[in-house]
From TrEMBL:
Residues 1-21 are annotated as: Disordered. It comes from Eolophus roseicapilla (Galah cockatoo). GO terms for molecular function: guanyl-nucleotide exchange factor activity; zinc ion binding. Guanine-nucleotide-releasing protein that acts on members of the SEC4/YPT1/RAB subfamily. Stimulates GDP release from both YPT1, RAB3A and RAB10, but is less active on these proteins than on the SEC4 protein. Might play a general role in vesicular transport. This is Guanine nucleotide exchange factor MSS4. GO terms for biological process: post-Golgi vesicle-mediated transport; protein transport; small GTPase-mediated signal transduction. Keywords: Acetylation, Guanine-nucleotide releasing factor, Metal-binding, Protein transport, Transport, Zinc. InterPro entries: Mss4, Mss4-like_sf, Mss4/transl-control_tumour. Interacts with RAB8A. The keyword Protein transport applies. Residues 1-11 have a biased composition (Low complexity). GO terms for cellular component: cytosol; membrane.
Amino acid sequence: MEAAAATAAPPASHPPPAAAAAATPGSAELVCAQGRNLKAVLCQRCGSRVLLPGAATFACRELLLPAMKKKAAAAAAGGGGDVLREHWLVRDMFSFENVGFTRDVGNVKFLVCADCEAGPIGWHCLDDKDSFYVALERVAHE
């Protein structure tokens, strides 16, 4: 994987909580009036709990995450990825119930499920020690 795949748009301003809840129709049922996650965040593959309700804040930011494929399949396909815009923003890495981190890719670490290693489910820039992004599209909610 090339370091270029880890680039992201400049930090976007975070909308106020009321605006965050109304950001998109699909995310509205997941975000409380204070902009926090209403439901637990789970791994899509194994169901392991990643975050408890209320542990993260809704954030809109364009981030490029590598495709969720097995290592051999991703290498054969030449990598690839998805630009994702809706995330749970976690300010303290100890707020996670169950998450793992990849090795550094440039100045980024990707977040994966610590149990089954599915991912990447999120993104963390090493330049900003207090911002961990979990893509809503890459996790389940309960």
